Amino acid sequence: MKVAVLQMEVAFGAPEKNIANFYRLTEQAMAQRPDVLLLPELWRLGFYPRPILDYADADGAQTRRALAELSARYQVNIVGGTVANAIGRQVFNTCYVFDRTGRLTTTYHKTHLFTPSGEKDDFQPGDSVVTFTLDGVKCGLAVCYDIRFPELARRLALEGVAVLFVPAAWPLARLIHWQTLIRARAIENQIFVVACNESGTGAGDLQLAGHSAIIDPWGEILAQAGEQETILQSTLRLAVRQQIKENMDVFSDRRERLYLPKIPIS
């Protein structure tokens, strides 16, 4: 599976400009014929103008049209980052996944909202963990802050996920956390992690970190960006994951009974 990560420099509060940039970067990325494109979190708006309801995409319609059009045009799977998605008066931080025919296959609402930034006041959390299949490969999603919760990635790994896609709008001030967490999720779960972080400036001159990365199940960095807008590409060799699991089958050594809250800690 060949993946392309679109590390966009997002224009704050300018959806038309960002959608045009998405079209431009997709055209560039498709020169290498990837199987999957990944976008960052809230790429249509940046992270994020307030009040968010005034800027949100009603039912994600504008975003879904763009994703559907380009996935069908280029016959490529697209993991569409996230969009501020207004459903009535509620706004969700939503990821859409489209297959090569332009069909919407998966919808995921970010489940963990970042309290320090006030995200809990502006968005509604999702309540479902999702998996999906791209070209026969079982995949999962975690959005930005979600990766601080190892239980989510572990649940996905236990469901047989081989590739975890992570759209994010992670700040430069916590770059070391970003780099450590995405690598840890890959190693501890023996999965590929494909992580797309946006670059540029968010609300209040927030500096986004960039540094998107593609990481294999051994923790090896297959590709890594700097702070500037760029396209990362790499091939995920699923046989490598199988070999790692055979040589060090950590899942067979789990003692789940000890991890359950019903077991007292002495």
TrEMBL record:
Residues 1-238 form the CN hydrolase domain. It holds the Pfam family CN_hydrolase. It comes from Selenomonas caprae. The keyword Cell membrane does not apply. Belongs to the carbon-nitrogen hydrolase superfamily. NIT1/NIT2 family. GO terms for molecular function: hydrolase activity. This is Carbon-nitrogen family hydrolase. The keyword Heme does not apply. SUPFAM superfamilies: Carbon-nitrogen hydrolase. Keywords: Hydrolase. It comes from the Bacteria. CDD domains: nitrilase_5 (cd07583).
